[in-house]
Amino acid sequence: MSNATPSIAIVGYGSQGRAHALNLRDSGFQVVVGLRPGGPTERQAKADGFTVRTPADAVADADLVAVLTPDMVQKQLYADVLAPHMKQGACLLFAHGLNVHFDMIAPRADLDVVLVAPKGPGALVRREYEIGRGVPCIYAVHQDPTGNAEQLALTYAAGLGGARANIIRTTFKEETETDLFGEQAVLCGGASSLVQAGFETLVEAGYQPEIAYYEVLHELKLIVDLFYEGGITRMLEFVSETAQYGDFVSGPRVIDASVKARMKDVLTDIQNGTFTRNWQAEYDAGLPNYRKFQQADKDHPIEHVGKQLRAKMTWLGEQTGAQAGAPAQPQSEAA
Ligand code: NAD
Ligand code: MG
């Protein structure tokens, strides 16, 4: 296969799938979307003007197949659909290395196997592309029987708009472990638990929940925007001397060495496969704990007060910010 303009099949049309399909099409690639007939995102893909085929049909003609279904269905998808139907010498692309790194998928030897992981949610991958920017991408090569694997990964990442920001080479191991750690310890798990704990502390001390909400959740956006623009240095330039002094003396009291020790425990569980084994078992059991945790987050008092306060921010429509272009609530499809 030449690496001029590979034909691309995108399997899955959720957060990443939709963004990749739209960006790659706008970058001049031929894109077909593979979805189960009658599945939840088929209508969206058709409304966006894509040819939608069954996964088996979509991948049969493709030079490159991007696997953008939930991680926990990829093993079965590979066994049932990809391994039997992909062309000899085609390229199998993942947006997260989990299944390959933890040996849940052992790809056919004739396939190039690569990873292109945008460092952002799908809606942002699309929005940044549309406004002429990009989300940084990291890429890796797991196997390269054709000699084209790296070039294909770079071509795909550029098609996503990633080259406008930055493209960095990694390994499946590094991407998988750092991605899981980031979302668990800092981005999703760490940040949401920090905000909830701060809110609870203020409300339990008798302060108004509305004011607690503004202090620990709403204002966080301002701070994170400053981090994004110029690092912690820039945040410090923008806050008062009093806030800086408080940051210096109280930040390390809250996030102390014991927190870092527990971060290391989290990382160890990721590295030795414990996290992935537990997640697979939870998924196979039909997500009983996952649903309980999800409900507890939704029922937290900060969500109730936040809903009322955000109703007054008329500019926060359904289609603003990181949500623009996002699909409806992605569903998990456990057995
Ligand atoms: P998602 O849950 O948003 O969407 C999944 C899509 O796959 C949906 O269209 C769904 O209908 C479809 N699907 C589910 N089971 C299927 C099956 N058996 N056959 C065919 N289609 C099926 O998923 P996502 O969050 O975009 O994640 C996709 C991949 O991208 C994962 O590997 C994930 O780790 C990776 N990733 C996600 C993000 C993110 O921000 N969401 C960021 C980087 C990487
Ligand atoms: Mg991630």
TrEMBL record:
Residues reported to bind NADP(+): Y13, G14, S15, Q16, R36, T41, G122
Residues noted as binding Mg(2+) 1 in the record, renumbered to the chain: D179, E183
Highest taxon in the source lineage: Bacteria
The gene coding this protein: ilvC
Cofactor dependence: Mg(2+)
Protein name from the UniProt record: Ketol-acid reductoisomerase (NADP(+))
Keyword set, alphabetical order: Amino-acid biosynthesis, Branched-chain amino acid biosynthesis, Isomerase, Magnesium, Metal-binding, NADP, Oxidoreductase
GO MF annotation list: isomerase activity; ketol-acid reductoisomerase activity; magnesium ion binding; NADP binding
Cofactor, free-text remark: Binds 2 magnesium ions per subunit.
Annotated source species: Luteimonas terrae
